[in-house]
Amino acid sequence: MSRDRSLGPARGRVAVRILAVASVVLLLATITLGVITFRLLDQRATAAPSGPSSAPPSSSAKPSSSAISTRSPGPSPTRSPTAAPLPETQPRLMSQGVPVLVRSDFTVRELAMTRWEPDVYTELLAPVERTDGAEISGTVYVDVTAYDEDGNIIERSPTTFSWRPGQTLGVISLAMMADLPSAARFVIEQTAFEEQAFEVTGELTVGSVTVGEAYGLETVADFSLTSTLSAGIDIAEVGILGSVDGRLFAACVSPVEVPAGPVFTDDCIWKSVSSEFVPDAPPTPPAGATYEVTVSF
Q: What is the pTM of this model?
């Protein structure tokens, strides 16, 4: 859908949306951290091993996808600080010049980021794929950690996303407020998979994306989605990913009320992101841009 936005109203609307999205990000991060803390405390009470090592990995071996086991709901086992880290599960990636190591049952396509700026949240987005046909269903727990040259943790952010049978694309989305320019490596590590059945079936596909007037490195993007979902969803995390030549140039992940109807529209704060360079221009769709949608319950 299109809207007539002057620069003044657009700035005001973008500012309000930014504050709203930032509040939701902080709330989701707090809830996720609380859940993981509860799991760890419950685990310690049953004399399970202590938390995962903060030491950076030193091996590039590639195990099979069964290296990280699927588990039923309940406290997930963690590794001793002295235990060797799990081996990497795919070739290393690069994100704005920093190596990215992955240990997961899922293939990470890239790790794209917004611009590094002091005292500002940097958003990290990693599209993930699983095309082996496994009919898994549940919640995936992931840690994304930034290390410095000495192997010290700059920041570690836990997050989750859901996965349903037949799904092939998802996204890891989180925010870090840290001295990321000093990062020597990022590690994306799947820490648990909790089996869970989802009653809603079907998918979302992008109908159109209309980019509004830019405000800095952000803009309001209107989008329409076609839904084959079997029921509406009160709230879901919907990601709109814009790519060119297989690389993200803009993205947003927002809480959205998904109706039961076949077509619906919404908008989000679309941000310039990149895994190849630090973004310095607003998210203007280049020629040949393609769009994908992800949904996490």
A: 0.73
